[in-house]
Structures are given as structure tokens and as C-alpha cells.
Specification:
alpha+beta, about 35% helix, 3 domains, about 625 residues, Ribosomal Protein S5, domain 2, Heat Shock Protein 90
Length: about 625
């Protein structure tokens, strides 16, 4: 029998490796930015076209590479970061596997320009699908500029699996945030299709967070600082009242590397227990410094998951540190038995001297004398006002009372028989009721075949969903004007999402007067939307857009209608009057699809008489 096992060609092996390293354009952005940071750059530019499908270019002013290094950097497992296996447990750099550039060059057109400071000329290398097309000398500034064009040009199936430009750009911005946040000593600039999205100058950590997520973020941050032998924590957490519906502002960095950890995230949620509403997620930007020997970062191709030696200790320290910060800055209630707030002296009393009290007493004053003025009244300024005898207060009341009684005696009241006759022809509410509310959650109604049980929340979602779809489709919606414009602050990413949905939001009844990078002014809202819930509805909408990650076939109108219906619908636990119950049931069965909620969940069930009879057999 012939041998069937053979070695794969290098270009095929590189394409297979690319499947692990390069999942989408955002993966390329991550690898190139990390290489620029490892090169010691002080300024990094990211240029993206068509959400990375056409071009991803990273320009840095780092130390650059020699001609030999530039050529070897595209070989598999070629790296300057490690020499032996033991080096994997003392890593302080980002890229170390030596597969990133080789994998990227296997599935794209790559052009590299690099020059070291001591060289007069740099090196230019062009690669297409793992094949080196040219390598020449070129004039280029110090540092490295690498351009990745036509991603997945030789793997059409992978390119077809990419989402819409909106979704892919959102993933690129997420990776950009993860790298730019923790490296605040480096200036970052990002362009997309020729327009500048971010310009982040060198700053401290707090200012970098504010530059990324908007100016209003500054007042939301609570500093966290803790240093132990095992772990050093620095960074910020958000105040509980600013918790979001999504997890977009949750960042863990371990030794300046972004990671995802459900276990450590649980520690943060535990620290915020009782302070954040259900369904909301606190913001945090925490940098953890640990001994590189105590972690393993080589367990996942994207290096976003880390294995810790002692997770339980990290959990306890992290939870305690966050709780301490919340209590220290009076965010969370604390018990302090050593101090009494009533005994504390205000700061503005620091340089004041105590004034001696001055009391004047009229020793000749007698309160039992009726209309006499005391001897010392002229000197003290006190004079007792004359007061009549207490009996005079009641003089004339008897006559007044008589007149009141006489006036009431002249009134004629209807008899009980006359009052009862007005309602004899109308059945009482209890007798005519056809619906009942059970546990403030379900509406039960009798039908010919048995019993109808309606989930009030899901039913109202269906009613609102179809109504909103209709108003957005025919583009006719009524608005209520606000007396004062409502100003809401969002991050740049969230504002871009709302800009894309602006037209559809206007068709539902919203009126916008101003759209800036981090502020939105609203002058009109839909008629059925309370003024106080506008921010909640928009936050829920942003969360739904981010979590559903819609593709090119996604309908913004449909998602907007679903999100607003979910926010405005009657909640479980809300008591309804008899008229509201009947109106809800009648409106549900007037819908085109009354059986299911917008989220494709059952809105009502029926139980026949025979099924009820079986329960009693």
C-alpha cells in the first residue's frame, strides 16, 4: 500500500495557520498594532479602507528593521522575542509566536517599508500570497509602514463570510480601543475611508479613557489602586449609576495585555452587588500587574485568554480592592464606628474663632401679669403684647354654630332608592368581567373552548412592535415637543451607531437638533415615550445593535422596532385595570402575528375544558 501521509507545502500551511490567527480584518489590526508597540513606537497611525477589506495600514516611528530582518519576519515561527521554551514564561512583549506576518502574507497583498535610524535607505518588500514579488531599497522615514491589501483575496469562501462594513469596522474599533487604552504613553491616530475617527495624544491613563469614550466619562470614574506581593491593581471603575446595558466598557489588562476572564468579571460584579440594577453592567478599566512566571498566555491563538496559577487569590484581592474604592469615595455605604458626622467641623470653620454668647435676661418679667410692661423692658427692648382672656376666644361661637346647623338643615338629600335606580339597568364590573390578572403577570380570559392565558409583557411587545413597524414604514409618526432640549452623552462608538439609525429613529417620532462626537440633543420624542425613559431606550437600542452583530441582510428598522417595543412594553409585575386588560387582549388579536412576541416567544396559550377536566380525574 502506498504512503498517504505527506508534508504540506509552506503556502498551504500558512493559509491553515491564518485560519487561527486571522479571523477577520480586526485580527490583522491587532497583530500589526502590537508589533508597532513592541518596536518602541511613540506614535502609531492606523489607516483603514472599507472596514479593512481593501486596506489596513499601520505606520509607526519605532526602531525599524534591517533588510535581513524584514525578509525573515515573514517566515513561519520567526521571532525576536523568544529563544528557548523557558522564555514563554517571562514574556513582556506582545507578538511572540512568529506566525502573524506569515499568516497575513499568505492571504493578502502585503507591502512593507522599514528603516533603522542609522541607515540611509530603507527596505521595501512586496508579497502576494506568501510569494515575495520584490525586495528593493527605498527612501522612507525611520520606523515601519506595513500595508495589507485585499484581505482573503485567494480564499473567496473566507471573504464571503465577512460581515457588513459596519460590523467589521466596529470590531476594528474594539481592537483599537484595547490596544490604545493601556498604552497611553503612545499617541494613536485612526482613519477610516479618509476621515479621522480618533486622535489620541500622549496622556495619562484617565485622560486616555476620556479621549476614547467622551468628555462626560471623567465624572463617572472612581480610581482603584492596590499593591500586594501577588498582584498590583491600577485603573478605574465606573460609578454604579452610570452602569450600561452592554459590556462595551469592560476592560481587563494583565501586564498591559487585554484579556477576557469571566472569573475575574464575576469578582467585579460581586463588588457591585446591590449597587447596580439587574441587566446592567458596571464599567471598569483595570490594569493588573503580575509575575509573568505565574501566568500562561499561550493557551489561545488570539492570546486574549490567560491561565493564572492562583485565580482564587486574585479574585479575593480584586473584589476587595473595588469594594474599598467604592466605599472610600462614598459611592457605596460604609459603616464607620470611629467617627461621628455630627462632631466633624466644616472646612470653612478652620480659621474662625468662637464667638462668646451674649444673653440678656429681664429678671422682673412675670408671665402671669396680664397687661403690664416689665420694668426692664425699655432697656432690653422686650415688651409683652397684650392678650385678652382665653374665654374671649370662644365668644360668638355658639351663634355661628347655630347658623351653620340651620343651613345644613335646609339641604335635601336624595334617598337611597333614587340612587340605586340609576344603576339598576347596568351590570356590576365584577359580574361583567371577562378577564382576570394573575400574579400581575398573566391575563386570563374565558373562551368557548376553555381558557386563554396571555403573557402581558410579550403581548404588549407584539402590539408595540407592529405599531412601530407601521409608523416607520409609512414614515408617519407623531412627536411631542420638549419644552427644554434633552442632552444625552455617549461614547464616539455609540454615537456612530445612533447616527446610522437616526433616520429610522426620526420615523418613530424622535427629533434631533444636534449630533456631535459625544453629545446628542433631542427636542422631540414619540408620544408614548416618557421623557425620563429616553436615555434608557437609546442605551437598550445600542446594546441590542452591538449584541446581535447584524450582517449585511440586517434590517435596521426591524431591530429598532424590536428594541423600542422591549423597552416600552408593560413589565411583568405591573398591575392593570380591567379596561387595560381587555384592551390589551383585544389589541393582541388585532395583530397580524398574535401568537409570538417579536423575539419569537409564545405570547399566549389556551387550555381546553377537557384538559382541565383531566386535571381533576
Amino acid at each position: 500500500m502506498a504512503d498517504i501521509i505527506q508534508l504540506l507545502p509552506d503556502h498551504v500551511a500558512n493559509q491553515i495557520a491564518a485560519g487561527e490567527v486571522v479571523q477577520r480584518p480586526a485580527s490583522v489590526v491587532k497583530e500589526l498594532l502590537e508589533n508597532a508597540i513592541d518596536a518602541g513606537a511613540s506614535q502609531i497611525k492606523l489607516i483603514v479602507k472599507d472596514a479593512g477589506k481593501t486596506l489596513i495600514q499601520v505606520i509607526d516611528d519605532g526602531k525599524g528593521m534591517s533588510a535581513t530582518d524584514a525578509r525573515l519576519s515573514f517566515e513561519r515561527h520567526a521571532t525576536s522575542k523568544i529563544r528557548t521554551a523557558e522564555d514563554l514564561f517571562s514574556l513582556h512583549t506582545k507578538g511572540f509566536r512568529g506566525e502573524a506576518l506569515a499568516s497575513i502574507a499568505a492571504i493578502a497583498h502585503v507591502e512593507l517599508k522599514t528603516k533603522q535610524d542609522q541607515d540611509e535607505l530603507g527596505t521595501q518588500i512586496t508579497i502576494e500570497g506568501s510569494e515575495v514579488v520584490s525586495q528593493d531599497l527605498t527612501v522612507t522615514p525611520k520606523g515601519t509602514a506595513i500595508a495589507v491589501k485585499n484581505l482573503f483575496f485567494n480564499i473567496p469562501a473566507r471573504r464571503n463570510f465577512l460581515k457588513s462594513n459596519t460590523v467589521e469596522l466596529r470590531h476594528i474599533i474594539d481592537e483599537f480601543h484595547r490596544v490604545a487604552l493601556v498604552h497611553h504613553s503612545i499617541a494613536f491616530i485612526m482613519y477610516h475611508n479618509g476621515s479621522e475617527l480618533f486622535n489620541l495624544p500622549t496622556s495619562n491613563y484617565r485622560q486616555r479613557i476620556v479621549n476614547v469614550f467622551g468628555g462626560k466619562t471623567n465624572e463617572k470614574l472612581v480610581p482603584v489602586n492596590e499593591a500586594t506581593e501577588v498582584l498590583k491593581i491600577s485603573g478605574f471603575v465606573g460609578k454604579p449609576q452610570f452602569a450600561k446595558k452592554s459590556r462595551t466598557e469592560q476592560f481587563f489588562f494583565v501586564n498591559d495585555r487585554f484579556i477576557k476572564s469571566a472569573y475575574l468579571n464575576h469578582a467585579i460584579n460581586s463588588a457591585f452587588e446591590g449597587l447596580v440594577k439587574d441587566g446592567s453592567h458596571p464599567s471598569y478599566f483595570l490594569n493588573l500587574q503580575v509575575d509573568p512566571k505565574s501566568i500562561d498566555i499561550n493557551i489561545h491563538p488570539t492570546k486574549t485568554e490567560i491561565k493564572f496559577d492562583d485565580e482564587h487569590t486574585l479574585y479575593a484581592i480584586l473584589r476587595s480592592s473595588v469594594k474599598h474604592s467604592l466605599g472610600q469615595f462614598n459611592i457605596a455605604p460604609v459603616l464607620d464606628f470611629e467617627s461621628d458626622a455630627n462632631l466633624e467641623t466644616p472646612y470653612d470653620f478652620k480659621n474662625k474663632t468662637a464667638a462668646m454668647p451674649h444673653v440678656e435676661v429681664d429678671r422682673s418679667f412675670n408671665p402671669f401679669l396680664d397687661e403690664q410692661v416689665s420694668k426692664g423692658s425699655s432697656s432690653s427692648g422686650y415688651k409683652k403684647e397684650p392678650v385678652g382672656q382665653w374665654e374671649s376666644l370662644y365668644v360668638g361661637l355658639e351663634s355661628k354654630g347655630t347658623r351653620v346647623n340651620q343651613s345644613f338643615s335646609e339641604l335635601q338629600l336624595e334617598s337611597d332608592d333614587e340612587l340605586q335606580s340609576m344603576f339598576d339597568n347596568e351590570p356590576s364590573e365584577t359580574a361583567s368581567r371577562s378577564t382576570y390578572q394573575f400574579q400581575n403577570k398573566y391575563i386570563i380570559s374565558a373562551i368557548k373552548s376553555g381558557m386563554l392565558i396571555v403573557d402581558q409583557n410579550r403581548a404588549h411587545q407584539r402590539i408595540l412592535y407592529e405599531g412601530l413597524l407601521k409608523s416607520m414604514t409609512i414614515k408617519e409618526a407623531t412627536s411631542q415637543q420638549l419644552l427644554f432640549p434633552l442632552e444625552l452623552h455617549f461614547s464616539i462608538t455609540e454615537t456612530n451607531i445612533l447616527k446610522q439609525l437616526k433616520e429610522d429613529l426620526e420615523h418613530t417620532g424622535f427629533i434631533f437638533s444636534e449630533f456631535t462626537e459625544d453629545k446628542i440633543s433631542i427636542t422631540g420624542v414619540p408620544v408614548n415615550v416618557p421623557h425620563s425613559e429616553v436615555s434608557i431606550i437609546l442605551e437598550q437600542l445600542i446594546s441590542d445593535v452591538e449584541q446581535e452583530v447584524p450582517d449585511s441582510n440586517f434590517s435596521a428598522v426591524d431591530l429598532l422596532a424590536k428594541s423600542m417595543a422591549k423597552s416600552l412594553a408593560i413589565k411583568s409585575g405591573q398591575s392593570l385595570t380591567f379596561m387595560e386588560q381587555e384592551h390589551l387582549v383585544n389589541s393582541l388579536f388585532a395583530c397580524k402575528e398574535p401568537n409570538m412576541s417579536p423575539a419569537n416567544r409564545i405570547a399566549f396559550i389556551t387550555m381546553g375544558v377537557e384538559e382541565l377536566d383531566k386535571k381533576f380525574m
